[in-house]
Amino acid sequence: MHKQAYAHGHRIPMLMVDEPQDIEFLVKESEVLTGQAGRIFVIAGADWLTYRVLWSQAGFKVEHLDDKGQVLHTQHQLPWEFVEHSVIEALQAGQLFTPSVRHRG
């Protein structure tokens, strides 16, 4: 389902995201293990764009983050809109990663 790697310039183990349906699972996994809403995803490219994705039954909240983790822009998308987001485009190009999550305690 996922391959573990170290994304360029990052010492945190990163998981390569393979399938669009994995995003919902990864977000929920992160929320359960960390107690924080959403999950960070990184697009591995020239700009190394960072997003926090939050899932609900109504759709996705996608926050574009700066290099300090501050929200630059927020989008609310229905599931059929999200499939056209740059996060999914990066996934399809093999450029979408997420930090590995470990249980605290």
* Class derived from helix and strand content: alpha+beta
- End-to-end CA span: 26 Å
> Hey, roughly how much beta strand do the residues contain?
35-45%
Per DSSP, the total helix count is: 3
Show unreliable segments: none
Classify the helix fraction into a percent range.
Answer: 10-25%
Mean pLDDT: 87
The structural domain count equals 1
Largest sheet properties: 7 strands, antiparallel
Q: Estimate the global geometry from the Cα principal axes.
A: globular
Question: How many individual β-strands?
Answer: 7
Order of strands across the main sheet: 1-2-7-3-4-5-6
- The SSE string, one letter per element, is EEHEEEEHHE
The rounded Rg comes to 13 Å
What is the compact description of this entry?
With 105 residues, the protein is α+β, with helices and mostly antiparallel strands.
What characteristics describe this protein?
105 residues, alpha+beta, 7-stranded antiparallel beta sheet, 7 strands, globular
